[in-house]
């Protein structure tokens, strides 16, 4: 059974955040998880899925750390 984490991310810097995080997602070496990342009209959509709960948690934590760094740098 696949477990999933789904997020809607709202930010006024949506396009910048999308480009920066997309680059990290595309280059990530994660083999046990799959990720969908989309730039929708009003928000960013991120879905991570995996059969392995530890891999799901690890991938989620990595992306959230990247997102935090990106958002903190945009606030300056």
Describe the structure.
- With 76 residues, the chain is of the alpha+beta class.
- Helix content is 47%, strand content 26%.
- The chain is built from two helices and three strands, in the order E-H-E-E-H.
- It has helices at residues 14-27, 53-74; strands at 3-9, 34-39, 44-50.
- It has a three-stranded antiparallel beta sheet, covered by helices on one side.
- Strand 2 and strand 3 (44-50) form a beta hairpin.
Can you give the helix content as a percent range?
40-55%
Describe the main β-sheet briefly: 3 strands, antiparallel
Q: How confident is the prediction overall: mean pLDDT?
A: 93
Estimate the strand proportion: 25-35%
The total of helices stands at 2
Give the neighbour order of strands across the main sheet.
Answer: 1-3-2
Distance between the termini: 42 Å
Low-confidence stretches: none
Class from secondary-structure proportions: alpha+beta
Produce the secondary structure layout.
Blueprint: E1 3-9, H1 14-27, E2 34-39, E3 44-50, H2 53-74
Antiparallel strand pairs: 1-3, 2-3
Helix pairs in contact: 1-2
Labels describing this entry:
single chain, alpha+beta, 2 helices, 26% strand
What is the structure about, briefly put?
This protein has helices spanning 14-27, 53-74, and strands at residues 3-9, 34-39, 44-50. It is 47% helix and 26% strand.
């Amino acid at each position: 059974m696949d477990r999933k984490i789904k997020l809607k991310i709202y930010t006024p810097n949506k396009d910048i955040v999308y480009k920066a995080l997309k680059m990290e997602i595309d280059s990530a070496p994660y083999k046990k998880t799959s990720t969908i990342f989309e730039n929708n009209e009003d928000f960013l959509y991120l879905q991570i899925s995996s059969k392995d709960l530890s891999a799901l948690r690890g991938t989620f934590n990595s992306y959230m750390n990247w997102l935090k760094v990106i958002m903190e740098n945009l606030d300056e």
